[in-house]
Amino acid sequence: MSQAGVASMRTRIKYCGLTREQDLSAAVAAGADALGFVLWPGSSRYVDVARLAELAAQVPAFVTRVGLFVDPEPELVRQVTPYLDLLQFHGNETPAFCAAFERPWIKALRMRDNLDLHVAAEAFNGAQALLLDAYRPGVPGGTGETFDWSRIPAGLKKPVILAGGLTPDNVADAIERVRPFAVDVSGGVEAAPGSKCSRLLEAFFRAVTDADSP
Question: Is position 133 annotated as part of the catalytic site?
Fold first, then answer.
């Protein structure tokens, strides 16, 4: 199954949950298109505003800085937007809320059994993409679990960012089956929560590149 208009493009890579300078440098060296910073205090990969400012200042040009939120207070989002290029919302945010901060945004959707992705794509029409993640009750993301990729319909009106349990070992299969615009990985390239492994970062990039090769 391929997403309309993007099947022939290379798969973009977002490394998420960056907390350390050395991991940021390793992710950039490994070919990151985007870096994700978790601004939800409930995560083991959480960074506060001051830490975000330090890390964001070290991201080079042409690598997108993404902030991950879960039902945030509007003031927090406004406070951190100077350090971000793209906003990623993982909670129960409305389309109007997501669009209120003068930044491009993506909406993360957990793949509940009754989720209709065509309806969701219409509802979040202002999003730059939909990020699809595994569903576990009470956990807004970062489960480390995959979901049934066959549930993603062809011809979805929004680009798909595939997340949920991706690793260097399964990402090629995911790309072959889904043909997403991008893949998002966090725990699958870590030695411990919030601590990335340069070897795994590089292996993930190689697996994506190989999957994109004709």
Answer: yes
Maximum Cα interatomic distance, the chain, rounded to a whole number of Å? 46
Mean pLDDT of each 10-residue bin along the chain, 214 residues long: 53 97 98 98 95 98 98 98 97 97 96 91 96 74 76 91 96 95 96 93 98 89
- Which residues lie below 8 Å from residue 119, measured CB to CB, with a gap of 6+? none
Told to judge if 16 belongs to the known catalytic residues of this protein, a careful annotator would answer yes
Parallel, antiparallel, or unpaired for β 64-69 and 195-196? unpaired
Of 23, 98, 133, 184, the active-site residue reads: 133
C-alpha span between 102 and 132 (Å, rounded): 23
Comparing C-alpha atoms, which of 147, 149, 208, 211 is closest to residue 176? 211
